[in-house]
Write a structure and sequence with these properties.
There is one protein chain. By secondary structure, this protein is mainly α. The chain has seven helices and no strands. Helix 2 crosses helix 4, helix 3 packs parallel to helix 6 and helix 6 packs antiparallel against helix 7. The longest helix is centred in the last third of the chain and has 25 residues. The radius of gyration is 17 Å and the shape is globular.
Length: about 170
């Protein structure tokens, strides 16, 4: 698949503009729109720096979503508003829309190996977002028992998926 890779500056400006528009579309009001745009800017910056430094898509997405969740909790306290307002807008850059598109395209074009590859990337990216949102750094609730049970299960599954991908020749 073809990838567009403009400079990081262009990516950050585009990401911020898109997320500000997304905030207006979801009726985010007042100064929260600006803070949601700033959060989206730094979310993509965290992701891009980690990914360009050689970390996997999963790890960059996980750290980016931990940043989103922590940032949303801070903004919720500052503005005395629900964290989901900022969290919904700031996570937008991490959502794996292209992977879903390419997966469906490959299914229609009957390129099943590529569809499986895109589906695995899609699931792993979504797991990175979900685990980042459930990180102990970002939540108010006490989820120690769930973290003790779910995290090893999910990490074991991810290791198995990565092993299967390596066995099939996917990178």
């Amino acid at each position: 698949m073809m990838e567009l890779t403009p400079s990081l500056t262009v990516q950050l400006i585009s990401c911020t503009a898109a997320c500000v528009g997304f905030a207006y579309w979801f009726n985010v009001k007042g100064i929260q729109v600006m803070y949601a745009g700033i959060g989206a800017f730094f979310t993509w910056l965290v992701y891009a720096l980690l990914y360009n430094a050689g970390y996997s898509n999963f790890m960059a997405t996980l750290v980016g979503s931990i940043f989103v969740a922590a940032y949303a909790q801070v903004m919720a306290r500052v503005h005395k508003a629900p964290a989901t307002i900022c969290q919904t807008v700031c996570v937008f850059p991490l959502v794996p829309g292209p992977n879903l598109y390419y997966m469906m395209y490959c299914i229609v074009m009957e390129e099943h190996d590529m569809a499986v590859s895109e589906a695995i990337t899609l699931v792993v990216t979504c797991l990175g977002i979900a685990l980042g949102f459930d990180s102990p750094f970002a939540n108010d609730h006490d989820a120690e028992i769930a973290d003790m049970i779910l995290t090893p299960l999910i990490m074991g599954y991810l290791q198995w998926v990565c092993g299967e991908m390596a066995d099939r020749g996917y990178d």
